[in-house]
Every structure is written in structure tokens, then in C-alpha cells.
Design a protein that fits this description.
Length: about 140
Amino acid sequence: MDALTAALKVAASGLGAQSERLRVVSENLANAQSTGTTPGSDPYRRKTISFASELDRSSGGSLVEVNSIARDPSDFPVEFQPGNEAADDKGYVKMPNVNVLIEMADMSEANRSYEANLQVIKQARDLISMTIDLMRNQ
């Protein structure tokens, strides 16, 4: 397998991984205020994503794969909201363990990584096209 095709495979695996990361971050942001529905019940628990490197035997390159999507075990913050349906007998509600600033930073980083992988694919495609054009003109 040639180097350009290997670069395409590596970049494509990066695109898939960052796309999944963006999905997880989006889900966390969408549920940043999702409390439980009964008194004292747990709210939405933040999801985390981890990646692993996997050797692609056909190209010899290292591809990135989603290793796992797990739940963040950190404690839930509590807020005093006595009118909320999820409030305990003292008026406190467990809130999701989602920090919007962290999620926005993760989203920004994932977006930049996605764009970088997309740029690699565009460059490799352009190089392949130029190679084909050179071969035609011989």
C-alpha cells in the first residue's frame, strides 16, 4: 500500500474518532441541566470518551479507534431548588456533573482535530490527482 493511501486511512480514522467525540460532547451539553424526575434521584451523568491506537496491518499505520464511552464517576453538585420535582426533603437537587466550560473546550479541540484530519484527506486527494495527471501526460 502506498504512503498516500495509508495517510488517507489514518486521517479517516481520525475523522471518525473526532466525530464520535463531538457527538458525546454534544450529548453532555444537551443534558447539562437534566435533573432526575423524582425526589433525590440522580441526574444525567456526564459521558467520557477514550481512544486507542490500533495497528493497521495492510498500511502499517496506526489508526485511532474509540476505546470506550464511559460515565464520569465524579460527584453531582447540588443546588437549592425547593420547587423542583427532583428536590429532596431539604429542597436540594442533584445537578448533572457536566461543566459547560470543559465541554466547550473539548468541543473546540475536537473540531480543530477534525478539521486537521480533513485537511490531510484533501491534500492526499490532491496529490493522488496530480500523480494521475502526470501519468496521463507521459
